[in-house]
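1st attempt posting a full record on here, be nice pls
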Amino acid sequence: MKKNIGAALALYPSPVIVVGAMVDGKPTWTLVAHAGTVAHSHLMVSLAQAHYINQGIRETKLLSVNVVDESWLAKADLMGTTSGNKEDKSTAFAYTMGDAGAPLIDEAKVSIECEVDGSYELEKFDNFLCKVLSVYAEEAVLNEKGKIDYHVFKPVLFEFPTYEYFVTGDKVGDCAKMNR
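the predicted structure (as C-alpha cells):
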C-alpha cells in the first residue's frame, strides 16, 4: 500500500546544470537543479528571485545551460554556494561565447544556448521558458550519427531533499520496444 507523504517534491533526481549569463558585460554562473524540458524546442529554468544572474537573464534574454558531468562537479557545486551578489564569479570558468551571445563553459561537454521566450513568477522563483537556439557538444560524447551518446556522456543528477549527487547509470531498456 502506498503512503501519502504530502506535497513533496518527488520528480528527483534531476540533471545538474550551471546556468551562465552576462551581467554588466561579464559572465556569471549559478548551479541549478530546477530545470527541464517543456517542449521539443524549449526548456524551463527555475531560479530563486534573489539570484544575481536573474538580472542578466532578464536584460539580455540569453542564457546557457551547461550540463555537469563528474569531471567538473566540484567547480559546479561551488557555483551553488557562492553568491554573485557578494562575489564576482566571472573568472570561475574558462568560457566561449555562443553564436547568440551567451557564455558557454569550456569544461562542459554539452552546453545549450537559449533565448528567453517568456517567464513567470511563482513562490519567489523566476521561471524562464527558454527556446533552444543551439546545442554545443564535444565530439568525444557524440555517436556515429552526431547525437549525444549517454553511454559515454554521463550527466550528474541531483536528489532533493538529501542533497546528494548521482551519475547516470546503465541502460535498462529500449523506449517503445519493451512489450514487443
